[in-house]
């Protein structure tokens, strides 16, 4: 799993919600500020930053619940699982 | 009614779609008849066909579907120019754009294959169906239901204020399931779909509004567009974002039309032997129109450029652009009527139509009150610490 990927995702979320204190394993949906607008921003950020398109079957809430889950999603889509 | 069967692809032609060509198209085909559309409450078929011939229905779709892969900055300019000529026509483009974009973004390969070429060519026209009698900006309040049924869906409910509903062939319908809101592609010809025209609206009177009634409409599994999970909200948000961008651009077009009408009128109309344009109060109104027009155009350009870059900042940029452009259009169309005096209240000049259409822009694709709430939320999120 890529530390760089996780750091970039974490930085994006923290920049959008400066008041949030999160780590890589925290469920961001439990924080109460995620809405469909931010979910869309998050998907756009991931697609733009990592140069991929998230397919419909990967748009599962569990893939976006934590920074680690999103990082794993990026790695899967890039075909870099296990490369770290 | 356009046939839903897939016609052979039109012969390939090289078209240039940009602000200049579309402006000329609008001046020739739309502007001279916009007031007639407004009075008659409809956009005639020959204009819809001319728009198709010009490739303007969904030029952002890829070439393999018959589009041009047009960038969204230029698409915004196209919608501005069409909005300058007639907001009703621009509204039809808006909802067709929303459905076509959603299909391209969220559709399966099979759905894109079935509908993409017909949408690009304008053989099938689309409408976006979210609002209900009791739910407009409050999307969470929709009561139309989609129940799993025989491997597909059973749709029941009513949609209201559906732009293009009287004419469209394919509806993108948002409905509630037990767990979320989903988007369904519903062909008009499906048994159980009824179209009830809505007439005599304040503005965009030729946008062929309708109420749609769905009674035990049976749909296959291929009707579902995008995910049925939590991400279904993104289909709605993303589609509305494109609609909002189109309305912002169209509002900028209204501003341009107000400026052109006022400059033309005040250069010729005299008071006390002098042209109106020599009066300082008139010049002040025009200078404010010019300034707000440029600002609105820049905000739309920024939103479009961010979309083209895939930058998530486009969502807030689009909220801001739509809020600014629509309020400026409403403000300056009021002034445009004032500048024209009694003439402005008549059907002899376009400004009465611009005034009525501009008011609608402050309500559709998220009322301006909702936009201000969202923009303020963003401000607090970014600046309150």
From TrEMBL, chain A:
Residues 1-78 form the Carrier domain. It comes from the Bacteria. Pfam families: PP-binding. Transmembrane segments: none annotated. InterPro entries: ACP-like_sf, PP-bd_ACP. It comes from Streptantibioticus parmotrematis. This is Acyl carrier protein.
From TrEMBL, chain B:
Belongs to the acyl-CoA dehydrogenase family. Keywords: FAD, Flavoprotein, Oxidoreductase. Residues 236-378 form the Acyl-CoA dehydrogenase/oxidase C-terminal domain. It comes from Streptantibioticus parmotrematis. InterPro entries: Acyl-CoA_DH_CS, Acyl-CoA_Oxase/DH_mid-dom, Acyl-CoA_Oxase/DH_mid-dom_sf, AcylCo_DH-like_C, AcylCo_DH/oxidase_C, AcylCoA_DH/ox_N, AcylCoA_DH/ox_N_sf, AcylCoA_DH/oxidase_NM_dom_sf. It comes from the Bacteria. It holds the Pfam family Acyl-CoA_dh_1. Residues 19-122 form the Acyl-CoA dehydrogenase/oxidase N-terminal domain. This is Acyl-CoA dehydrogenase family protein. Its cofactor is FAD.
